Amino acid sequence: MAALKVLQVVGFKNSGKTTLALNLLEQAKNKGKTVAFIKHHGHGGPLELPKADTDSMRLLGSGADCSIAYGDGIIQMHQQKQTATVEELVDYASLGNPDLILVEGFKEAPFEKIVLLRSVEDSLELQKLQNIVLAIAPEELQLDNIRLILQNDSKLLQNWFANWMVIDNEGI
After folding, report:
1. Cβ pair 69, 60 in contact under 8 A
2. Which CATH class is domain 5-44+83-166?
3. What's the Rg (C-alpha) of the chain?
4. Which residues of the chain have pLDDT under 50?
5. Largest CA-CA distance found in the chain, in angstroms, rounded
6. How much is the pLDDT for 66?
């Protein structure tokens, strides 16, 4: 059995991470893949929660460390935890037995990643990261041992991702 495939999309603010991640998600779903998605909330402050008067939020507010609600095919989980690693989040996401997990953000995490570059300065900073399997940039950049696709070459990117989804990366 192949290892669970995890692919990160990383870059600086407004580099197109969400747009790319949504495109990859759509492509994976069109290939019949089940996909879990993890997004780093980098906007400061806690996430918005459902209204406080819902049963699941009343339970959380009454001291439950985790509240899970299920209805009509949707599982909703809220957990209070001061810190969580991306590895823990991947473990949570893997509970649904997806074919792959897409992660937006968490630059320092150890998973294979696509790096979105806006400039040479970005490339200098982001080349310090581990497990970069692809860089996407608006123009040709000189990168050491990192494959580069121009951001307007959507066909090449689609082909790369289609191949990535089927290549067994067990042991990487």
Report:
1. no
2. alpha beta
3. 18
4. 1, 170-172
5. 55
6. 83
- In order of 41, 67, 72, 128, the CA distances from 55 in angstroms are 25, 9, 16, 45
Contact in structure between 138 and 150 (CB atoms under 8 Å): yes
The pLDDT value given to residue 1: 46
Nearest partner of 37 among 47, 27, 25, judged by Cα = 25
Give SS3 for 25.
helix
For residue 23, what are its two tokens?
């495109």
- Helix/strand/coil (H, E, C) string of 147-171? CEEECCCHHHHHHHHHHHHHCCCCC
Q: List the one residue out of 102, 59, 104, 97 whose CA is nearest residue 78.
A: 59
pLDDT of residue 76: 82
* SS3 call for 121: helix
Cβ pair 24, 7 in contact under 8 A: yes
Residue 55 burial class via C-beta count within 10 angstroms: exposed 0-12, middle 13-18, buried 19 and up: exposed
The residue assigned the tokens 């989804």 is 165
Lookup: tokens for 146: 């990192």
